[in-house]
Amino acid sequence: MIRLKFNLLVSTYRNREDDCTSELWYLFRELGDDSIEVRRALVPGLLLVKTKLDPFEAAKRIGEIAKERPWDVRYTLKLTPIDVVTSDNEEEIRRAAIDIAIKKIGENETFRITINKRLSNLSSKKLIEEIAKEINRKVNLKNPDKVLQIEIIGKDVGIAVLRPDDIISIVKITTS
Q1: Which domains does the chain have, with CATH numbers?
Q2: Where are the extended beta strands (E) located within the chain?
Q3: pTM score, two decimals?
């Protein structure tokens, strides 16, 4: 199977992946990308999306649409921008995570590593230890400036350096 080099991880309700896909096509067309690629992840309720737009900006703009017109965002629950995609090979994950962390976490910024693992036997603890020792930045587990997020979904792995407000939760937006 050819891997999709996704740059956005989208969660939806189980068995509503097709509805969410249609909604995403509609929303991204409004944002200026009429050629997004969407693939179901092996886990129910997760979609891998490839957009030509900046995924961080696109997620924020969809959050704004949800706030202004909640009826247009009914199936999209959460959007997580992704900086880089790699295979589930431990060494590739380690290398990609260290590279992106050093580029995007400032020398005076604090960070935390978060791993969301689905359909994988990789050791989160081992990965975190191996990656953290190579990043010469201060760690703050409770209130970091940036989060090195590693999303492992079977053989698909997305890695991003995120500020706390980069992950867009539609439920939080529409209920606040």
Answers
A1: 8-83+165-175 (3.30.2130.30), 84-162 (3.30.2130.30)
A2: 8-11, 37-40, 46-50, 78-81, 84-86, 110-118, 138-139, 146-153, 156-162, 168-169
A3: 0.94
